[in-house]
Amino acid sequence: MPTELPPTPIATPLGVDTTPISLTPAAGTDLEPVWSAVVPETRARSNDIHLPISLAYAERLCAAHPEADALLVRVAILLHDTGWGRVDEDRILTEGFTGDWRRAAIRYEHEKQGCLIAREVLPPLGYDDGFVDEVVAIIDGHDTRKEARSLEDALVRDADRLWRFDHAGIALASGWFGMDPASYCDRLAEEIVPELLTEAAITLATSELDRSQALLKTGVLR
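Below the sequence we write its predicted structure tokens.
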């Protein structure tokens, strides 16, 4: 059951693990049937890198927020971008990462497709209709809605952004936006950190960005 959204940035009741995300990949095997059901959709737009890293961040955020429905967060983040696998791949970069990219039609389309995928794959795996509705409510608008509707929605949104701060995310996403890594890191600090909804995510983002900038020598390579 989704938890009501507190005022943002949402205070973190517990500490947050700020070690490199590669040290704590997503735990357990309970979601492997869901992964297996969406393998084709993970091959679009580097979802096979983005989604596992985002899930690992989501689990860190859930550990910092034990009051959240962790299963809802984990399933929603796993599926949130699968819709990219069912839209015109040529349009993903030409429309989804240029100009007013947040309002691009292709982004609404991938959200709609992601909702359809969730309704296709989750019921046969034993997830009940109410849970599926909650997952779909988070996927629908995760890129295009300005506000989060619940704590779980906020954690998914933050996890979706946090992967960009890891060096793997920077390597991929800087290319999507046609930016060099140093300029992209500047954008992360100036635009994306202020969008984060939880104190835990802000702490993770700033820690990860410091490490990535040191690793990628962005102070010199710009």
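The chain has a mean pLDDT of 93.
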